[in-house]
Design a protein that fits this description.
single chain, alpha+beta, two-stranded antiparallel sheet, 40% helix, 15% strand, elongated
């Protein structure tokens, strides 16, 4: 099995709402809406260029898909991620 690690803002964060509006899809509820024109791009151009992102929702890939080492398990991966998240200070902008 392959795993990947992604970040997405919480549903109630402004960045999540802005991205959902721009992409035309809310990944938390899967609601869609027509894509709007942006600056000099027509709605059709925006829809074309955001089609893939719309499918997956707004996110950042932290670790691309990978396979676990033979000695590791999904539980050990989750534990390592939990430990990392608890020990890492949040980024405040």
């Amino acid at each position: 099995m392959r795993y990947a690690i992604y970040y997405t803002p919480r549903q109630d964060e402004p960045l999540a709402r802005i991205a959902a509006n721009w992409l035309g899809r809310d990944p938390f509820g899967a609601a869609t809406r027509p894509v709007e024109a942006v600056a000099e791009l027509s709605a059709a151009e925006v829809a074309f260029h955001t089609a893939s992102a719309r499918r997956y929702g707004f996110h950042a890939t932290l670790k691309a898909p990978f396979r676990l080492a033979g000695s590791e398990t999904e539980a050990s991966l989750r534990a390592a991620l939990d430990s990392f998240a608890e020990a890492t200070q949040p980024v405040i902008v």
